[in-house]
Write a structure and sequence with these properties.
Shape: elongated
Strand order of the largest sheet: 6-5-14
Number of helices: 2
Largest sheet: 3 strands, antiparallel
């Protein structure tokens, strides 16, 4: 069997992996605060006995795009957009600290401030709990102020400040939960130079047109791999026929 089959099969497998990643980005083109995943290809020599005459393709996770989406005004009290380079700290499903730019928040039946994916939003002393309120305001620094039920209009209470962080991009990696985590697992320090825009949301940073073009390009590359497999099969059949004539 012609060893080119192993090479093109490897390339086809990696193209399918890249296509799956690109499809996930496209599916999240309208997801609030979504950070698109990146992938790159590299050539990898096959080592072993004899000469290194075969090279396999390898698709690797290149991390996350830290480009910013556009900020869109909603007017909703519990909607916030991160202004500039920063993140909202939340509690992941395993209890660890994680980070997101998705600011479409809500208060659950227990009074906890949650993201749209039901991850508790962290304050500087742990998850934030909001009492029953008649009005609520989130300041540019993340401070949450409410007017409790039954209180006078000038009676306001500070509930706490949302934990805002700005770790180095090199220290961030995206988990399977779609949240950003520090590579060493240590919580990032809260900062005061990250601000919020209240009553607004950040859109996904996925360019839908670019993702569609990538999908078409990857599909054509995969078709080319299949054609090479067919050519290798034809060559193998021709070689067998010649040997039979002998």
């Amino acid at each position: 069997m012609d060893r080119v089959l192993f090479v093109v099969a490897s390339g086809g497998k990696q193209l399918m992996r890249a296509q799956a990643l690109n499809s996930n980005n496209l599916a999240n083109a309208n997801t609030v605060g979504f950070q698109q995943d990146l992938a790159n290809f590299r050539s990898q020599l096959i080592s072993g006995s004899g000469f290194e005459t075969r090279v396999l393709a390898s698709a690797e996770d290149a991390g996350v795009s830290f480009d910013k989406g556009s900020i869109q005004t909603t007017g909703r009290t519990l909607d916030v957009a991160v202004n500039g380079d920063g993140w909202i700290a939340v509690q992941a499903s395993d209890g660890s600290e994680a980070y997101t730019r998705a600011g479409n928040l809500h208060v659950d039946k227990n009074g906890q401030l949650m993201t749209s994916s039901d991850h508790p939003v962290l304050g500087e002393a742990g998850p934030l709990v909001i009492p029953d309120y008649e009005s609520l305001e989130i300041g540019v620094d993340g401070t949450i102020t409410v007017r409790p039920v039954g209180q006078q209009p000038n009676t306001l209470s500070d509930i706490g400040r949302m934990k805002l962080v700005s770790p180095e991009h090199e220290n961030l990696t995206k988990g399977v939960d779609g949240l950003l985590h520090t590579r060493d697992g240590a919580p990032a320090e809260a900062v005061t130079d990250v601000s919020l825009v209240s009553g607004a949301l950040e859109s996904s940073n996925v360019n839908g047109i670019e993702a569609m073009v990538n999908m078409i390009s990857l599909a054509r590359q995969f078709e080319l791999q299949v054609k090479i497999m067919k050519t290798a099969e034809d060559n193998d059949a021709s070689s067998t026929q010649i040997m039979n004539l002998g």
